[in-house]
Design a protein that fits this description.
The protein has one domain. Helices cover about 0% and strands about 40% of the residues. It has no helices and seven strands. The strands form two sheets. A five-stranded antiparallel beta sheet has the order 6-5-4-3-7, with no helix packed on it. A two-stranded antiparallel sheet has the order 1-2. A hairpin with a 7-residue loop joins β5 and β6. The radius of gyration is 12 Å and the shape is globular. It starts with a strand and ends in a 12-residue tail after the last strand.
Length: about 80
């Protein structure tokens, strides 16, 4: 992981549909960045059909799937 500014980190799965193994939910990885005043980055995930973002530890991310214009990976949700 490398810093991309504003304390955000790069990650090869950014923009992909991933599984949060802690909750079992699937979402689009939007960012790896600290939450609040914490210095440790967390993974920011958004539901593929819209809704409220949530955070999880980066090590909880599994099963990446690229999102294409033909489908947002929803067939696996």
């Amino acid at each position: 992981m490398t810093s991309t500014g504003l304390m955000h980190r790069s990650h090869p799965w950014l923009g992909q549909l991933v599984t949060d193994s802690a909750s079992g939910r699937r979402g689009i990885l939007r960012a790896l960045a600290p939450e609040g005043t914490a210095l440790t980055p967390v993974a920011w995930l958004a539901p593929p059909r819209g809704g409220i973002e949530w955070t999880t530890a980066p090590e909880n991310l599994t099963d990446p799937m690229p999102i294409t214009p033909a489908g947002r990976g929803e067939e696996r949700i």
